[in-house]
Design a protein that fits this description.
By secondary structure, the chain is mostly helical. It is 71% helix and 0% strand.
Length: 480
């Protein structure tokens, strides 16, 4: 594949993102639903691809667009390769620019949040694996690893679903990636839509501590434009551009984190081949991105120890992550196979319905009993994350707590530091498919059921009992 083709494929993604932003600015429904431009751009790329435009062209009597739509097969091949690369960049930066807290500090700040987040994540495995064992396998003949699709698609999101593409293929189920990407798309849109519905319900029922019935997002917020008087710098210059471009410096740190992750993964694979590959192979199928996150933790630990000048800017890291995630989502959706979703529509629909029912039910029934204070503002963030990506949870928290007056944001952040390395694309997510194939779905189901029982017990019996004392400090609007 020529460098010109690769360059053109990347430029086309930029054009699609710009078109998508213009659609967001002009389309009122997209504004009211807060649909990200990357989702809109991915939908445009999908419509212009072979599964929509190609099918329409074939129906009217021409096969001109059957192979790749208005694009070429080489461009679509570049797009299909990008998600697995970009997700490693996103995960490598999760901890860069953040001080690594000790376990006591993180536990004190986010103990209840961690138990609720663990409940949501482990429950998705329990629901999914039970569905695979009782329905998807016996009725539809699908493999047991479909039981992991709810957590991969909902909690993990597009990046995780795309990053696990090779793992699905290695185990003879390449359709799993398309199903997971479809789950991620439905989860992201449903998370935003249902989240806004729940916020409106919470305001009317007096469940929100900060947001009142008269508070509505501004037109600019709905359009995704920051008002001129509220604009701030997207990043900070920590080094002089005459010595090195700050963006290049931070990209270099991310590159080091990814390379460290690759070295760690290669080392684990080497050890596995020597000692236990004849019995079970796990690290052979683990993708790079969760290990790249460990590389980022190592880099940040070194930075905490030796960086006296504080040259790492968290906002700059976030800009690179945001760019990578936008490119990842649009390229992943643009190469999604609608044919696979159509062929597995009923199993896909069952997974979506059960996943939605679990997340909504956990928020309405468990969050008020597990989170001792500001349960709505704190719970809506975890609900959003369990349905899409971290950004979804942050969007919903920002709507429910626009002035950041509740402890929702810091508690959510500290919870992420503990939970993110394992679920939502972490080590547990990456290892789930190889473990299911190696040992069957039952052992993983038992482990996740135990985790679910543990998190529920601690959340309800330890943190939940503190609610009576904490609730008195909340505004009257948030009392039960």
């Amino acid at each position: 594949m020529s460098p010109d083709t690769i360059g053109l494929a990347l430029l086309l993604l930029g054009v699609l993102l710009l078109v998508a932003k213009l659609v967001r600015v002009k389309w009122r429904l997209a504004q009211r639903l807060f649909i990200p431009s990357s989702i809109i751009g991915g939908a445009v790329a999908l419509i212009l691809g072979p599964d929509v435009l190609g099918a329409i062209a074939s129906w009217i009597g021409t096969d001109r667009f059957a192979d790749a739509g208005i694009f070429t097969a080489d461009i679509r091949q570049v797009w299909s390769s990008l998600p697995g690369l970009l997700i490693s960049v996103v995960f490598a930066g999760l901890f860069l620019g953040h001080r690594i807290p000790n376990a006591r500090e993180a536990g004190r700040m986010a103990g209840p949040q961690l138990m609720f987040g663990l409940t949501l994540a482990s429950g998705q495995y329990v629901v999914g694996l039970l569905l695979a064992l009782l329905v998807l396998g016996p009725v539809f003949g699908l493999p047991p690893l479909t039981g992991a699709l709810i957590e991969i698609g909902f909690e993990g999101g597009h990046g995780t679903a795309a990053g696990l593409g090779d793992t699905f293929s290695d185990f003879g189920f390449p359709e799993g990636q398309d199903l997971a990407l479809g789950m991620a798309t439905v989860g992201l849109l449903s998370g935003i839509i249902l989240g806004i519905v729940l916020i409106n319900w919470g305001v009317r029922r007096g469940k929100t501590a900060e947001l009142k019935a008269s508070a509505t997002p501004s037109v600019s917020e709905q359009m995704g434009i920051v008002e001129r008087e509220n604009r701030r710098s997207a990043a900070t210059l920590t080094v002089h551009p005459s010595s090195i471009e700050p963006l290049a410096l931070h990209f270099g740190l991310l590159a080091i984190a990814v390379i460290i992750g690759q070295l760690i993964l290669s080392g684990l694979q080497w050890v596995e081949q020597i000692f236990w590959a004849d019995t079970i192979e796990l690290f052979k199928y683990v993708p790079l991105f969760p290990i790249a996150m460990i590389g980022g933790i190592i880099v940040q630990t070194v930075i905490d120890r030796f960086d006296r000048h504080k040259i790492v800017d968290q906002l700059m890291i976030e800009r690179i992550q945001g760019f990578s995630l936008d490119m990842l989502i649009i390229s992943a959706l643009g190469t999604l196979s609608l044919q696979v979703l159509a062929e597995n529509f009923m199993p896909f629909l069952l997974l979506v319905i059960c996943g939605l029912a679990w997340s909504v039910g956990a928020f309405l029934l468990l969050a008020p009993r597990m989170l001792p204070d500001y349960w709505f503002e704190r719970g809506i963030g975890d609900f959003g994350q369990s349905m899409g990506v971290t950004a979804t949870g942050l969007i919903l928290m920002r709507i429910a707590d626009p002035e950041l007056r509740t402890p929702a944001y810091p508690a959510f952040g500290y919870k992420q530091l503990v939970l993110e390395p394992f679920f939502g694309g972490g080590l547990v997510t990456a290892a789930a498919i190889p473990l299911i194939v190696a040992f069957g779905p039952t052992p993983l189901l038992v482990v996740m059921a135990v985790l679910l029982a543990f998190s529920l017990s601690i959340g309800l019996l330890v943190f939940g009992r503190k609610r009576g004392a904490s609730a008195s400090s909340e505004p009257a609007a948030s009392t039960e």
